[in-house]
Amino acid sequence: RSVYVNGDYLPEGEAKISIFDRGFLMADGVYEVTTVIDGKLIDFDGHFTRLQRSLDELGIENPMDRDAWLEVHRQLVDQNALDQGMIYLQVTRGAPGDRDFVFPDPETTKPTVVLFTQSNPALVDSPKAKKGIKVITIDDIRWGRRDIKTVQLLYPSMGKMMAIKQGADDAWMVQEGCVTEGTSNNAYIIKDGRIVTRALSNDILHGITRAAVLRFAQEAQMPVEERSFTVQEAMQADEAFVTSASTFVMPVVEIDGARLGTGAPGPLALRLREIYIEESRKAAI
Ligand code: PLP
Asked: Ligand 1, atom 10: nearest CA belongs to which residue?
């Protein structure tokens, strides 16, 4: 695989970063995941805009402008002959000479930029989407700025492992009785034809897929309520689903062991998945 590190395209085995990198030592960095279908980027501008916002919130200077980022993404797609999969990008505050809680001087310590591709030919035609996924619920004990897409992913990763250990696929995180989001996706329920998902705040990541799906739902005359919902409400919903760049719209068929509806992916979730894939494919660049 050809990867990108600080201006260079290298074989993955030759790519190196400093042991003093603050991303490695302190999770002081942000990331984005952009999906590739037919060798094209889905919602590149949405991901670029959110990257800029994450960097601004942490006071890290954006090392490249939009067109330079786009060029690196396209180079990696070409060099790796990527048809379907994703591009991961990470920007950290860089590697000062020592470990120190004080941020380094941005004049001397420049951000570290890493990008790589991951191929996944089963994104669109996903066997998981045909069956739906099972989720468990866990306490949301993450920090209070989940709107910033930091590389601090230990708890979500532990949550996913707790789910797998219990024979489920993923975990929904719960704060004061209400679902915030999944470990790496936004969460939705559908009751009597109405789509319900938590409103945007510092409590959740502002999903790029969420924004697109809500827009498509409204265009398809599906009513949307942006509000918190409880676990109880979710267990009694007709349907549920999650969204993320890499899973699109993924039906949820079980919550904490309670089957939703017939236990098969719901018709509205499947329809939204189809619309999302079709429309994003058309708009890909
Ligand atoms: N919420 C969390 C915690 C995530 O990690 C992600 C994606 O990684 C999402 C939501 C979905 O965001 P997007 O649709 O931009 O991929």
From this structure: 185
Q: Are 62 and 52 in contact (CB under 8 A)?
A: yes
List per-residue pLDDT tens for the chain, 285 residues long. Answer: 999 999 999 999 999 999 999 999 999 999 999 999 999 999 999 999 999 999 999 999 999 999 999 999 999 999 999 999 999 999 999 999 899 999 999 999 999 999 999 999 999 999 999 999 999 999 999 999 999 999 999 999 999 999 999 999 999 999 999 999 999 999 999 999 999 999 999 999 999 999 999 999 999 999 999 999 999 999 999 999 999 999 999 999 999 999 998 999 999 999 999 999 999 999 999
The pTM for the full model equals: 0.97
CA angle 255, 228, 28 (to 5 degrees): 90
Pocket test of ligand 1: the residue of 53, 123, 205, 276 to mutate, having most ligand atoms within 8 Å of its CB, is: 205
Separation of 102 CA from ligand 1 center, angstroms?
29
Residue 113 CA, ligand 1 centroid: distance in Å:
20
Q: Annotated catalytic sites, by residue?
A: 149
- Which residues, including other chains, have CB under 8 Å from residue 245's CB and lie 6 or more apart? 33, 34, 35, 42, 43, 47, 86, 208, 209
Q: What domains can you pick out in the chain, each with its CATH number?
A: 2-119 (3.30.470.10), 127-283 (3.20.10.10)
**Cβ < 6 Å from ligand 1: which residues?**
33, 181, 184-186, 205, 207-210, 243-245
193: left (phi over 0), alpha (psi -120 to 50) or beta: left
Tell how far the Cα of 58 is from the centroid of ligand 1, in angstroms. 18
SS3 122: coil
